[in-house]
Amino acid sequence: MAFRSLLRVERCKQNVLFALSAVKKSEKRDLQFFLPGSLKHCAAAYCTASEKSEVVCEYRNGLPVLLVPLPSTRGHCQFTLKPVTETVGDFLNHLKREDGGIERTGIYNEDGVKIAKSTSIDVLMRNPFTLKINDDSFRVNPPELDKLISEDARTMADVKSMIYQLYSTLHVEQHQLEKEKDLRGQLENLKVEIEPLEKLRAELDRKAARNANWWVWGGLGYMGLQFGLLARLTWWEYSWDIVEPITYFVTYGGLIVLYSYFVLTRQDYTNLDARDRQYLVSFHRNAKKKKMDIEKYNKLRDQISQLEQDLRRLRDPLTLHLPITPSPSQAFKE
């Protein structure tokens, strides 16, 4: 059999030389006219490429590799795709850049619906599809990847858990230290900025508290003076029959004052609320005289409170993976 094959190849070579010599002698004749039957059989046996080749898809080193016939060169070109980072649009752009003769490209699913260019290569390789280049269509059947068995899946989960713990051990504590340092720096800057406002606020607080206390003691003095005056009129100057109508009008006048307080403040009168209101009125009046920016002060205080809360959360034993310290009551019971 081997000897016959060698003999057939040798005859093909002779026929090719005969055809070439004939073409040189007569340019007007067709090449097929000078091809003997043996040469035609030789071309069919060794030139097996058809008019439309197939697209070969396989996985190499975990990456999909496609052998695509290009229309200009009529030869296959290898394209290695990245399943996660590349999309269908990237693959089609690779085809157009590789062969300038490609005018139209598209990828369609088994139902003939065009697949969007934003689809990832990983999703594309899960099912068979059709690649259209100009007027040619190529059926592509991606090979199936072997699924992990349950033992391999559990092993992979254990490895992921170990990697996570290792990463936490090496990086989380350092990240917490850097974050705490950053928060402490911001807290120090805010405290330096708010320090003059704190001094001014403490001064205004003392003045407002003193003013509110004067009003409280003044109200007590007024009630004592009223009691003494009515007692003097009842037992020394006049009798109860004369003073009784006076007390009625004094009491009704007090009710009018309390109702006026409600009309002005839209709050029910209580001694504590009245004292706090007088304190705030005095504080804002003095702050306006001292030109203190109360809005800026409140904003700085809110930022400081937020930073202090973040620091407490960062130093929490659960965050630092430390045992929780028992409360004093629990320690005493133990």
Using brief descriptors, characterize the structure shown:
334 residues; mainly alpha; 3-stranded antiparallel sheet; disordered N terminus; Calcium uniporter protein; MCU_C; membrane; calcium
Can you describe what's shown?
It is found in: Mitochondrion inner membrane. The chain is built from ten helices and six strands, in the order H-H-H-E-E-E-H-E-H-E-E-H-H-H-H-H. With 334 residues, it is mainly α. It has a three-stranded antiparallel beta sheet with strand order 1-2-3, with no helix packed on it. A three-stranded antiparallel beta sheet has the order 4-5-6, covered by helices on one side.
Briefly characterize the structure.
The chain is mainly alpha-helical and 334 residues long.
Largest sheet: 3 strands, antiparallel
Helical fraction = 55-70%
Strand order, biggest sheet?
1-2-3
Shape: elongated
Subcellular location: Mitochondrion inner membrane
Family: Belongs to the MCU (TC 1.A.77) family.
Transmembrane segments: 214-234, 246-264
InterPro entries: MCU_C (IPR006769), MCU_fam (IPR039055)
Topology:
Blueprint: H1 2-25, H2 31-34, H3 37-46, E1 56-60, E2 63-69, E3 76-80, H4 88-98, E4 105-108, H5 121-124, E5 129-133, E6 136-140, H6 150-237, H7 240-265, H8 271-290, H9 294-314, H10 328-333
Antiparallel strand pairs: 1-2, 2-3, 4-5, 5-6
Helix pairs in contact: 6-7, 6-8, 6-9
GO biological process, one term: mitochondrial calcium ion homeostasis
Catalytic activity: Ca(2+)(in) = Ca(2+)(out)
Family: Belongs to the MCU (TC 1.A.77) family.
